[in-house]
């Protein structure tokens, strides 16, 4: 409370942090009810961000945002299911929204880089990596699994990946645990990704 009272910009920061969160996911909000839900989560995010800034909470801003995004998309999945208006998004609509989302990803073209290893900063700043893997003729989009998991529940991911496999965008091997790991490693730690060929959609 001491920090909050002394911070003359506290009110403005709350709005800024809230709007910042909404701005990241506004394209996923297709109904007024979804917008209201997102605004509530954004308010929690703003409050948490201030508490972190004031050193009241020893949390990471990045991890907190990721956790709140997970909560938001889990709630949106619940709303779009039979629990809300009885309408379930078709597989075609699911694929369309997914393709639209990955088209806007922050993607690093690894083929055009001099060094093959990814730095910690590059991994943190990018949601996906485009590179031509050994034995492949065309570049593959390697989408970080953390990005996918914060936006789709487990059941929705199963549906989405089934459609991707059916369209030839993803193979069963591309979904398995032992093959969805990026070949590059950072400090010995592999980067978990999903291999997707968007040109076949």
Provide keyphrases for this structure.
201 residues, 5-stranded mixed sheet, alpha+beta, single chain, 9 helices, 13% strand
Please describe the topology of this protein.
Elements: H1 2-6, H2 10-25, H3 32-53, H4 61-80, H5 91-103, E1 107-109, H6 120-125, E2 128-131, E3 140-144, H7 145-151, H8 154-166, H9 172-175, E4 181-186, E5 189-196
Parallel strand pairs: 1-2
Antiparallel strand pairs: 2-3, 3-5, 4-5
Helix pairs in contact: 2-3, 3-4, 5-8
Question: Judging from the principal axes of the Cα atoms, what is the shape?
Answer: globular
Q: Determine the number of helices (DSSP H or I, runs of at least 4 residues).
A: 9
Instruction: Report the radius of gyration as a whole number of Å.
Output: 19 Å
Strand content: 5-15%
> What structural class do helix, strand and pairing data support?
alpha+beta
The level of helicity is 40-55%
Overall structural domain count: 2
Widest sheet: strand ordering: 1-2-3-5-4
């Amino acid at each position: 409370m001491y920090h909050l009272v002394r911070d003359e910009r506290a009110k403005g920061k709350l709005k800024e942090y809230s709007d910042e969160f909404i701005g990241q996911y506004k394209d996923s909000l297709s109904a007024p009810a979804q917008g209201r839900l997102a605004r509530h989560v954004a308010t929690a995010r703003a409050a948490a961000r201030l508490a972190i800034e004031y050193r009241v909470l020893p949390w990471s801003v990045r991890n907190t945002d990721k956790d709140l995004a997970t909560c938001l998309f889990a709630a949106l999945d619940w709303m779009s299911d039979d629990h809300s208006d009885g309408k379930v998004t078709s597989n075609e609509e699911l694929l369309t929204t997914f393709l639209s989302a990955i088209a806007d990803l922050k993607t690093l073209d690894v083929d055009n880089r001099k060094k093959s290893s990814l730095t910690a900063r590059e991994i943190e700043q990018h949601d996906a990596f485009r590179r031509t893997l050994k034995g492949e003729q065309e570049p593959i989009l390697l989408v970080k699994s953390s990005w996918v998991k914060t936006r789709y529940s487990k059941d929705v991911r199963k549906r989405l990946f089934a459609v991707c496999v059916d369209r030839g965008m993803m193979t069963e091997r591309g979904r398995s645990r032992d093959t969805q790991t990026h070949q590059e490693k950072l400090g010995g730690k592999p980067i978990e990704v999903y291999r997707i060929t968007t040109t076949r959609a």
